[in-house]
Design a protein that fits this description.
mainly alpha; 2 strands; 42% helix
């Protein structure tokens, strides 16, 4: 199953590609989750927030920030094609990869690995059961 129609994918911009890469980073490289979290302690999670994205992409202020916000709006291709989700309330909004993006980019069947990403106040290695898609008896890692 293709990620999206070819003509719609060709309409994506460099900024869209950067946003896709940042959205999938915590799933692709779980070791970066705590680092992203430490750069945005006000959010308390490993998904990249809009302020952090603006800094990482070195957006130069008003015009470029507005362009980023436009590319994350519901009618914009990334969201309309169901590739990423924007979650939370301003100013703590984060972007997350959709399941079909994880499948297409990482070849994984689901997002269960994100359950094991370190959250605020949690650190340490990702449990091997989570990496294998197995949940321990009794729930979701004590949550």
């Amino acid at each position: 199953m293709p990620l999206a129609p070819r003509d719609e994918l060709q309409a994506l911009t460099r900024l869209d590609a950067d946003l896709l890469a940042l959205a999938v980073t915590p799933v692709a490289r779980p070791s970066l989750g705590p680092r992203l979290d430490s750069l945005q302690p006000q959010i308390g999670q490993s998904w990249p927030g809009l302020a952090l994205i603006a800094e990482l992409l070195m957006l130069d202020g008003g015009r470029q920030n507005a362009m980023m916000i436009d590319r994350l709006a519901p009618p914009a291709p990334l969201v309309a094609l169901g590739l990423i989700r924007v979650e939370g309330a301003t100013p703590h909004q984060v972007i997350r990869p959709a399941l079909k993006l994880i499948r297409a980019m990482l070849g994984r069947d689901d997002e269960r690995i994100s359950l094991a990403l370190p959250q605020a106040g949690r650190s340490g290695p990702v449990p091997s059961a989570a990496l294998a898609g197995q949940m321990p008896k009794g729930g979701h890692h004590g949550r």
